[in-house]
Amino acid sequence: MMDTSVIEIRRLPNYQLVSTTDFFFPLVDDPFLMGRIACANVLSDMYSEGVTEVDNLLMILAASIDMPPNCRDIVTWKMIEGFRSLAEEAGSSVTGGQSIYNPWPIIGGTAMSVVPKERVLMPTGAIEGDVLVLTKPLGTQVAVNAFQWINIDERWSRISDVVSREQLERAFDISAMSMERLNRKAAELMWKHGAHAATDVTGFGILGHAEALARNQSESVSFVIHTLPVIRAMAGVDAKLQNLFRLVKGRSAETSGGLLICLPKENVGAFCSEIYEAEGWPAIVVGTVEGGDRSASIAADVEIKEL
User: Fold this and answer.
1) Mean pLDDT over residues 224-236, rounded?
2) d(Cα 249, Cα 232) in Å, to the nearest integer?
3) Please, where are the H alpha helices in 49-117?
4) Is the pTM for the entire model greater than 0.90?
């Protein structure tokens, strides 16, 4: 499985059509922010295969029939505005889409681009000795869900002894900023620093996506994850909840997560320095590519690195 559909264009033999679709229910209260997160999430599939210029976006939208009409109008238009604003920042535009009525709001889209064959980074080229780098922290699902518990006494009491309100508010803010941040700069730097393969970390967690990427490899390699960069205090929250989200097992879902990139070892330092200089966010070395059977695993002595 790949993050996008890549097909030949019969009338343009040196080009390929790259496309992807994704949508989901809102996970934050701010509809404008939700629109931006949805746009970033759709575009990440394209960026994971090195497509830095996205020609077109179509929006997928559901307006809630369970909301009062005046609230529905405000929420729906704010989601649209948020999606469009980030599309413009990405150098793309929304030219159409599909909208329906639904009990719950839905936001997402389809991204498409016509790309020269040599500018598509197929997720198959990892080699033994590569280093795995992740461009965003883990723990967004834990942070977003736990943040909703602050004002629900019964639920807040389950975690209040391991995290303060201030810590949880900070974790939510970091999650929101992370989820709306484009992976475009990372995609540009993948080309500059000779990346061999990549995927974006979303609904199946870092281990699930590492497993899918490992299965795609041409060489007989395996991925070993030795470090999990986690938003501060979220590992403790999940542990208190008896690993409800399976964060330290690498199975916690992320929304608009980072790119997991296989880079030549000698280029990792420059990649990490340049992405931090450009964005102010660290990229973290999380593992290695070893000879193996196209599998992925979390090391027994995995390090939890709080950010």
Assistant:
1) 98
2) 16
3) 69-89
4) yes
132: helix, strand or coil: strand
Query: Is 70 exceeded by the pLDDT of residue 3?
Result: yes
My answer on whether 34 and 88 are in the same domain is yes
> Is the pLDDT at 2 greater than 80, yes or no?
no
Structure tokens at 260: 């997991």
Count structural domains, the chain. Answer: 2
Domain around 83: 5-119
What are the start-end ranges of the H helices in the chain?
31-48, 69-89, 140-147, 153-159, 165-179, 184-192, 205-215, 234-240, 268-279
Alpha carbons 94 and 98: distance in angstroms, whole number: 12
What integer is the mean pLDDT of 5-17?
93
Asked if residue 126 is part of any domain, the answer here is: no
78: left (phi over 0), alpha (psi -120 to 50) or beta: alpha
CA atoms of 54 and 52, how far apart (whole Å): 6
Reading the block at residue 98, the tokens are 């599909």
Amino acid at 268: V
User: What average pLDDT does this structure show over 216-220?
Assistant: 97
